[in-house]
Amino acid sequence: MLFKKFVKQYLNNNLTKKNIIVSGGTSVINPLKILNQIKQRKKVTNVYLLDERNSKNFNIQNYFLIKKILKKNWNISKLNKNFLQKKNIINFTKKLKLSKSLILMGMGSDGHFASIFSESKKFNKLISLKQKPNFIETENLGEPFCKRFTMNLSMILLSSKIIIILDKYKKRSLFLKYINSNSRKNYPICSLVNHGKNKILFLVKKKLLSIKQLVRIYG
């Protein structure tokens, strides 16, 4: 199915409240542009950040990248230290459980997703399903090298659908390499795919594919 058609159907379903959760990175730019073309009658869809760079430099914050693209009809929430207060996390977790949430995320070339890096000191806490759904502040990580806020895996899996954007040949090749590796635990994306199962679709060339379709076509 085409990505645009899928999202139209998702947004036009008025039976439940809807959220769109977006990661940082350049992979989300084109999908967000498609999203912005879809007209909504009212400003009803909430947009939240999957992760954020904890920096005073607006130019590297995911919020401002997303806000530049989604200019109209979207309620976009910032992700900062206030969001990490216990009462806010409890309320947000309830909201995810009572609504349908769609996640758009990229994958780093090292296999990280959101701001969950294998080298993080908090990696086990971020990836363990024994942990309650939560937002966690990391140490300095990644490129740009900075502290980050990110959903843990338990919170990510509260969403009803997760779309992983594999927009480039290199990303598709790396993903297929990681899921077939004997060292899968070294690549965070493998944990997401393992636990997300039927919730996950892959965006390739404006089309959505299941993992079986992805492997058959590009494997």
Comma- or semicolon-separated keywords:
219 residues; alpha/beta; 7-stranded mixed beta sheet; 3-stranded antiparallel beta sheet; 9 helices; 10 strands; 18% strand; globular
- The number of helices is 9
Main sheet summary:
7 strands, mixed
Which regions are unreliable across 5 or more consecutive residues at pLDDT < 50?
Answer: none
Tertiary shape: globular
- Proportion of beta-strand residues: 15-25%
Order of helices and strands: HEHEEHEHEHEEHEHHEEH
Beta strand count? 10
Report the mean per-residue pLDDT as an integer: 92
Question: Can you characterise this structure?
Answer:
- With 219 residues, this protein is α/β, with parallel strands linked by helices.
- Helix content is 35%, strand content 18%.
- It is built from nine helices and ten strands.
- The strands form two sheets. The chain has a seven-stranded mixed beta sheet with strand order 4-2-1-5-8-9-10.
- The protein is globular, with a radius of gyration of 16 Å.
- The model has no long low-confidence stretch (mean pLDDT 92).
Summarize the structure.
This protein has helices spanning 3-12, 29-37, 62-69, 86-97, 123-127, 153-156, 169-179, 188-196, 211-218, and strands at 18-22, 46-49, 51-53, 75-76, 100-105, 135-137, 148-151, 161-165, 200-204, 207-209. With 219 residues, it is of the alpha/beta class. Helix 2 links the parallel strand 1 (18-22) and strand 2 (46-49).
Topology:
Layout: H1 3-12, E1 18-22, H2 29-37, E2 46-49, E3 51-53, H3 62-69, E4 75-76, H4 86-97, E5 100-105, H5 123-127, E6 135-137, E7 148-151, H6 153-156, E8 161-165, H7 169-179, H8 188-196, E9 200-204, E10 207-209, H9 211-218
